[in-house]
Amino acid sequence: MEKFEKLSGIAAPLPLINVDTDMIIPKQFLKTIKRSGLGVNLFDEMRYDDDGNEIPDFVLNKPQYREAQILVAGDNFGCGSSREHAPWAIKDFGIRCVIAPSYADIFYSNCFKNGILPIALPQEQVDVLMQDAEKGSNARMTVDLEAQTVTTSDGETFSFEVDAFKKHCLLEGLDDIGLTMEKVAAIDTFEARVSAERPWV
Questions:
Q1: Is residue 76 part of a domain?
Q2: Structurally, how many domains does the chain consist of?
Q3: DSSP conformational letter for 110
Q4: pLDDT in tens, 1-21
Q5: How far is CA 69 from CA 33, 48, 77, 79, in A?
Q6: CB-based burial of residue 22 (10 Å sphere; 0-12 exposed, 13-18 middle, 19+ buried)?
Q7: DSSP 35-60
Q8: pTM of the entire structure?
Q9: Gap between the Cα atoms of 168 and 6, Å rounded
Q10: What does the angle CA 8 – CA 165 – CA 174 come to, to the nearest 5 degrees?
Q11: Which of 38, 110, 137, 189 has the fewest CB atoms within 10 Å, i.e. is most exposed?
Q12: Minimal CA–CA distance to 18: which of 89, 79, 97?
């Protein structure tokens, strides 16, 4: 998993509450078990019309937000079903950080497991960041995980809380498999001992 340390990038504003996982990646795209290729279908029903043409007014279709790496969203982001495809699609599009007042618990946890930093901030601070994001590609936010800060394009800084273990995993680029592989020496020692003690197993 790619490490997350410090990110400076374009932030896209999505001032909607209760954005559920079906809005993030509709159910018809859940057939794959690959983590790549879903970015094109992120927010599919809001990005495209019935003929598959881009809807120009949707934020990620606007030229200034096509390279967005940060998403500033409304309350209760990621609610609905617990599909891991939702963070897969967000990451595949190129977004590494989501900022919102609150998240659905499972979506929040899935973000960390897929190299995305979900930041929860009070509504009044999210409002400031939303206004900053609306400035377009000339305004770049900076997210510093080590310092646990978000800085606007104007230099205003907000601090955020993050679980120490989840922070460690993002900083080191460790998903569940990576965490297991950290213990590979101990696992090999255990398996060798068990094989010697119980060769019939």
A1: yes
A2: 1
A3: H
A4: 889 999 999 999 999 999 999
A5: 23, 20, 17, 21
A6: middle
A7: SSS-GGGTTHHHHB-TTS-B-TTSGG
A8: 0.88
A9: 13
A10: 65
A11: 189
A12: 79
Say if 155 falls within a structural domain.
yes
Task: Write down how long the chain is.
Answer: 201
Question: Looking at residue 49, which CATH number applies to its domain?
Answer: 3.20.19.10
Amino acid at 130: M
pLDDT block averages, 10 residues each, the chain of length 201: 95 98 94 87 97 96 97 97 94 98 97 97 98 94 98 97 96 74 66 76 69
59 domain residue, yes or no: yes
Domain around 21: 6-197
Q: Under 8 Å CB-to-CB from 104, ≥6 apart: which residues?
A: 21, 76, 77, 78, 79, 80
The answer to whether 6 and 123 have CB atoms below 8 angstroms apart is no
